[in-house]
Amino acid sequence: MAADGLVLSIDGMGGDAGPGTVVEGVAIAARRWPRTRFLVHGDAAQLTPLVSRHAGLSAVAGVRAAERAIGMEMKPAQALRQGKGTSLWNAVEAVKDGEAHAAVSAGNTGAFMAISMFRLRTMAGVHRPALTAGIPNARALTTVMLDVGANVEADASQLVEFAIMGEAFFRALYGVERPTIGLLNVGAEDQKGHEEIRTAARLIRDRRIDMDFRGFVEGDDICKGGVDVVVTDGFTGNIALKSIEGAARLVGQFLRESLTSGPLAQAGAALAYPALKKLRKRMDPSTNNGAVFLGLNGVVVKSHGSANAEGFAAAIDVAVRLARSHYRDEIARNIARLGAGAETTAEQRDAS
Amino acid sequence: MAADGLVLSIDGMGGDAGPGTVVEGVAIAARRWPRTRFLVHGDAAQLTPLVSRHAGLSAVAGVRAAERAIGMEMKPAQALRQGKGTSLWNAVEAVKDGEAHAAVSAGNTGAFMAISMFRLRTMAGVHRPALTAGIPNARALTTVMLDVGANVEADASQLVEFAIMGEAFFRALYGVERPTIGLLNVGAEDQKGHEEIRTAARLIRDRRIDMDFRGFVEGDDICKGGVDVVVTDGFTGNIALKSIEGAARLVGQFLRESLTSGPLAQAGAALAYPALKKLRKRMDPSTNNGAVFLGLNGVVVKSHGSANAEGFAAAIDVAVRLARSHYRDEIARNIARLGAGAETTAEQRDAS
Question: A230 - beta bridge partners?
Fold first, then answer.
């Protein structure tokens, strides 16, 4: 690794827009993080000229030849069997080998998760990794929600693990000392929801997990920004996230229809154009790009498949912030509290 | 009951806006449905002058004195113990007694559900009732989602029951002969999601439930209108619904901030005002007001607590459409298919 900075491992072939967009994203990130180096994995014949096109980029970004790439349609199990030697696999492998501090890809999410989990393994004490999403809200920093789809179900301890991981992640990402944490539920009262969630809330309090836990939050708190981190199982989180995306898209469509519905509306829209453009940017998923697969022995960041170069650079930002932070030590400390509590309970049970 | 029309039982005291809004809503509905009669339960000293204020309303709307009302903070269990004789209780009781065809209230949702369930009981073959919500989409008719909170969990058979009830409900509401039905999941492929959902999909197909079942849909399909009826458990449905509400509110807030961010934007907004007003109406929850507590021996419609008179009239529309339809017979027929399949399976098991 570079003695004076970070090394990031990039899947050069992932994403809908192709290697050009990935390399452009790397170029933006290289200007933003001057002491960082990049390993760009993929088809050297395509990647090398793309890298040389950006002045000075060749000095910090090296191309690592990988003959194959994983397509967007490949199933995770197939990716595990046939993925060796692909740009995605090699990007993860560089983290495993200690050659890079983090891997970033805009490729096939399921394959990326499967390969990362297989090669990097979960941290000690973490039973299942979780996928994060950043969601706009009315405040300065986005709401982080997890899990949004790495697992279909989660028991109470796993929900607590997600809370621990999300808390450390938010601090690493935004530098907020004490992020606020909420468990997603159908009501704020203690007796609401199903057993797993109520037990998870009790565990966070009883085991003295070190976090600013605010109890239960509801679906509308996600976009309200009622807490910094919303914790839920991957089934509910995935559906909440996509429901929000669908709603935002619908309002956008209604707005476009309204503002093109007649000459007056069109004139109004023209006058308000700069303001509407700012609104569009505020709602743009690229702004909050960079989903993290938390709980592994290594930093793994997924860029949205349709992200543009700015979006890919935003995903690299997330990787840099995480790789620079102590989030894994913080997770390990809180996971130990969760585990220690479990032992106490077992001892108490043995003693009685 | 009136020989020539419907009788609706109205909780005159429910809702944030008070009896004035409820009675105004009844007056709107009375003009829309001239052969319908109304029983308005509540404080006669308040209600009688409100009814007489609307020309001709006294002829079709009678006030039924109820001394007490159920507050918005009362817990369901408390409402069951102490609710007898309240306007809400009496509104439901009139349906139970066969005096009215449907009950409508803008009051305490939990209390309304508990009292309705206690007095009306579930239909034969229905294990748990379900609460519906109407959600705007880009097409002409709203998406109906259920369950949005009557139950925290649902097993596979209960999900099929919800699908059966939602299908009949959509037809009764909109007159669509073959509504399309989808099960909410984290992906469209057959192997996605947890066991209950996969089993529910198999049951709908194997038991030849009579509906246009389209398989799995995802969170963003709710606002896209990919199917007419989205079926899920009450936990997921509640969170999806509130996530959508929160997202729509956030985009609205961003839009307001954009359009007041400077003189040009303000001028544009002024020109586009009629179009923006139409947009507002399109997103207004009152337009889709009227959640139904499906699966009981009687029609029970919940108006949103903050609905205005037009919104309350929209909830009455839902009650009228349901009370006029054969939705309960249709539900019973499909529930029988589900049950018959279960018996066959049991016989097969015995025979093997």
Answer: A145, A182
